[in-house]
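Changelog note: in this version the structure field was regenerated for every chain. One regenerated record is shown below for reference.
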Amino acid sequence: MTRLVVVGASLAGLRAVEAARRAGFDGEIVLIGQETHLPYDRPPLSKRYLVGEAEADFWRTEAELRDDLRVDLRLGETATALRPERRVIETTAGEIGYDRLILATGAAPRILPGLPDLEGIVTLRNLEDADELRDRLTPGANIVVLGAGFIGSEIASSASKLGATATVIEGAPVPLVRAVGEVVGAALAELHPRNGTRLELATTISEYRGEGGRLTEVVLSTGEVLPADLVVIGIGAAPATSWLEGSGIELHPRDRGVVCDVALRTSLPDVWAAGDIVHWPNAVYDQSMRLENWTNASDQGLRAGANAADPTHADEYQTVPYFWSDWYGHRIQFVGVASGEVEFISGSPDDDRFVAIFVDGDRVIAAATVNEPRKIMKLRRLIAERGDRSGALAIVHPELVTKE
């Protein structure tokens, strides 16, 4: 019997299992997960879960996984090495062989070197981290968030909602440039001070101070001392692929993500990959990219699972990237790749509601919106169809379209 092993029991890994079964794969499926929890939804951890408005959302029960999907579920196991010459994965619980393999280990938070061993310096990546944060985010607490990216900004927003005093420290002069570009990044950054959160740009933390093993304050690169009951490190994530070193698989020289082809096949025979770890050539933009967002993890998992189930009929994976975030009650959405010229076709950078498009010549290649949820998916379709500025204007301002 053919055995498909999926390493990574989060969104991409679960979707790969589901897609493989839907595609008719009738062999054995083994799902390996480092955490002891069943697969759960991660985006709420920095938002509704953190403020106590929702509990953990587990996508499948153990009975559904084991009985309905016929999965050999291996939770609490960590993959430590891949031995393709023997078609074996080494884990903390022993070895397991595979006939086909999907890698979906996601990304891990970047950790600053040299951090002191003080209680109160934390990251947010999993359910346990969120539980610790939820206990510490109390009214009146002084919270310092290092990093004004999406995770850091969501945490600052949640802290504010709970009555804590939040300060966001960002090393760059403009946050989120890689994700949404400089113009939109600067516009989004203004949501912090407009909602009572202090934001310090082009600033770092130069010293962490504590008493009795517990954090009490931080010193900024400007020399200012801030009281700090808690520092949340939110400076991004890196592909969780260290366990693949030495396996012979091709890893990207910049960040050690897994290099795949258009069908999400890796450089090793019968091995695919999905989610945050994947570099692949996206035909929509004629360029290689790696994405870290919920939509891509889900969609790549589905494609990798279907392709692994029936490799002879593998389909290419291409997409217009899409992600969203919620800050201070505002829904931020982005589609595409942030490059080209930026034009605000509705609202302005100073508004709490706007639509901005990114154009290359006349072609729309990306769009950013705040509090315009009904327009974003129409703009995504326009980008996929290589539409132009007039098409974007017709979506955002249909009242201006001349009726013949």
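Spot check on this record: The mean pLDDT is 96. The first helix runs from residue 11 to 22.
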